[in-house]
Design brief:
globular, mainly beta, 6-stranded antiparallel beta sheet, single chain, Jelly Rolls
């Protein structure tokens, strides 16, 4: 099962592998393909049933995407992502397409999105519009390897919290991104991760000394973490936790491959005055401390 009941087409890639991580009912998808030719591509698609659309309807689709090679130990920009939304009638007629948005994906885990206003064309029979098709195309820019990590999909009516949303993720009225400058994680020990450097945006409700987010404003916050560990043994288990007042809860499990890995998890929390933080544990068979990647990121987003 893919996040949000998406359909995944990897038939255009060379020997692709995929890894789905589920935590607290929310998932992310990691796809890798070796020795592709330029232009080879995979697709992630979703059909959102809207019901009749007969007026201007502002729609926003967004998704977090990143690319990081575990085998090479370095960052690649060899993966290109194209996002597109299409308004479709009940009979399958394409009524409107958004201009395709193209992104080269690196390691900074951008939130990429398309916006548009859908309206039934003049003279079209009513009800004409029945679906919004969302397509995420990820392709190899030049001959070589492709890797794409996709998480936190959203589809919603712009400026409103719920009418067209199909996932548990809140709308991003603001986003702040923190990263860790490298932290030693001892095997079989739950360790709070401190994202002590600013990657994007000014600080908000997050203590970069203790790694704790705390707010009493009643907002819903999305905490999304992309966290890498080096030196792993194939089959190692890694667990990411949301900590509430220092107590690990809502574990997200992942099985590691050999070498360097990137793990993803998301949680939605309430600004209710409690202290929230992110923790990690692993059972490396080498029973040694592993170091987080210097660009491991925590994204904090909030609704109205």
């Amino acid at each position: 099962m893919h996040p949000g009941n998406w359909t995944l087409d990897l038939s255009g890639l060379t020997s692709p592998t995929k890894k789905t991580t589920i935590g607290n009912g929310i998932g992310s998808l990691d796809v890798e393909a070796k020795s592709n030719l330029a232009g080879q591509a995979g697709y992630l698609r979703y059909r959102h049933t809207t019901g009749p659309i007969v007026v201007y309807t502002p729609i926003c689709f967004s998704i977090n995407a990143s690319s990081y090679y575990s085998e090479s130990g370095g960052i690649t920009t060899n993966t290109k992502v194209t996002l597109k939304m299409t308004l479709v009638s009940a009979t399958g007629t394409i009524l409107r397409e958004t201009p395709a948005k193209v992104y080269v994906i690196g390691s900074n885990r951008p939130l990429i999105y398309v916006n548009d206003g859908f309206v039934v064309p003049p003279g079209a029979p009513s009800p004409a519009a029945a679906y919004i098709d969302v397509e995420v195309k990820f392709e190899t820019i030049a001959d070589g390897d492709l890797r794409i990590i996709l998480s936190a999909p959203q589809l919603e009516r712009a400026g409103l919290p719920t009418p067209y949303k199909y996932s548990q993720f809140p709308s991003n009225y603001f986003t702040r991104v923190r990263k860790t400058t490298g932290q030693s994680i001892v095997a079989n020990t739950t360790t709070t991760v401190v994202f002590n450097s600013v990657l994007e945006g000014t600080n908000i409700v997050y203590d970069t000394t203790t790694g704790i987010q705390s707010a009493s404003d009643g907002r819903n916050y999305l905490l999304q973490v992309n966290l890498g560990l080096a030196g792993m043994v194939a089959g190692d288990i890694v667990i990411l936790y949301l900590q509430v007042a220092g107590s690990p809860t809502y574990p997200a499990y992942a099985v590691a491959g050999a070498g360097k890995n990137v793990f993803n998890a998301c949680w939605t929390v309430r600004g209710d005055g409690r202290e929230y933080s992110i923790a990690i544990s692993h059972n490396s068979s080498a029973a040694r401390a592993l170091t987080t990647f210097a660009d491991a990121a925590l994204t904090i987003s909030a609704t109205n």
